[in-house]
Prior knowledge:
The chain is built from seven helices and 22 strands. By secondary structure, the protein is an alpha+beta fold.
Amino acid sequence: MKEFPTPAESRDRKDKKVNEKKQTNKKDRIKNIAIVFLVIMLLLTFFSNTIMNYSLPEVSTAYAQSGNVTAKVRGTGTVETAEDYDVKVTENHVVGSVKIKVGDEVSADQVLFELDGTGTTDESALKEAQDTLDSLELDYSKALLAAAPNYALDNLDIKSAREELSDAVANQTKAAARASLVEQQAAAQKKVNDLQADVDYIQAQIDSVSGNSVSKYNKKLKEKKKALADANATLAQITSDLEGTPTVDDANAAVREKQKALDTLILTLANKQTDDKVTQGQAALDLKASKKKVDDQREVVEKLKNGGQESEIKAKNAGVVKSVNCIAGDTVTPDSALASIAVTGNGYSVSFSVTKEQAKLVKAGQEAEIQNVWGTDMKATLDSIKADVDNPDKNKILTFKITGDDVTVGQSLSLSVGEKSSQYDVIVPNSAIREDNNGKFVLVVNVKSSPLGNRYVLSRADVEVLASDDTNSAVSGGLFGYEYVVTNSTKPLEAGMKVRLADQ
């Protein structure tokens, strides 16, 4: 017989189904909410990542690789003559007429100025001029007799330091044998102790016996005492040698100290010689200027001795007029220059300053390209490489000899000089080279993976520029030849920054 549930059981079952349905609906809602939340988070992450990427600096890159670089040194200078001179009078005059203007070519003895009046020379003026000449000649003689730099004491100090270093190195060898001496000392001390014990034993036996036995023991005692004396002598010698032998640490420290002292003396001498070269170069220029003053003053004295009358001023040497400093009617004195003449016939030159690194890329005798003049027979040849007196520690002056019929004093020439193309292991675009107080460097793009894609982070690689041309530079140092380096960016950059690539 089928049983039917009671009303109470029916209600319980109904309530149970209702509760189960509510719980299922609740779980479904939670699940749906979770799914929606995750979707929203993914979308927000995606968009925030996209926004962040677009806020990063955009960079252009190039691949560091092997290649050819044509090392060229470039610069611009003004064409000059080998020598200039000022046109002066020997006494006060009024300028009657000016026969020249800037840029004129003049020949030797050509009249440059006509003068009014016969001058005002007297005995006092002659004496004053002679005194000035005497003073100038004395100064010139002193400059000629100036002693060359003497490095004898410096060389003696270096020799002494080398000898001390040699002694320190010898002590290193002695120190290496110290362990062996310690072992020898211990062995010698043991032998002495053993022999002393034998002597003591034999002496005790002698004291306890009589008769013929005493003679036998005395013989043995004599032998042992002799052996003991020899052992003590050996021990003393080893101990003496050990006392004069430094430890390995002390010996090494002494070598380092002596080497440092020697290096300091050598560096000091090198710096002194470098400074003296600059000083000597300037001294040579000063000597030349002093000689010119003497010659000019002699002319003044001779003219005063001859009456001091001047009616015209002529050119001493052929040249080109660089400046005219007076007009007709001006009163001129011996202290003033009426004009400046650039001497021709001794050649022309162009000079400009470069870094010491650039100077290493060229050598005297190389022909340079003239880059801003065409259709001319002008040629430029590197004549000399000298220290730049304005910045001798970092720069050099390149002086080029200029030849040709079209050379003009004051003309600006842009020159390029250097060796032929060479192969290098690592080259980068010139735009990749950066520089700060710590030297030259490039910024390398490093790739880091993440769940949302690659990230690009910059790192610094210090480099030395070996050679450069118009496009690329050969470098050594922090690059191996397979890195991507930054060539351009939309914002200032530094190592550690995140960036985005221009083609991303």
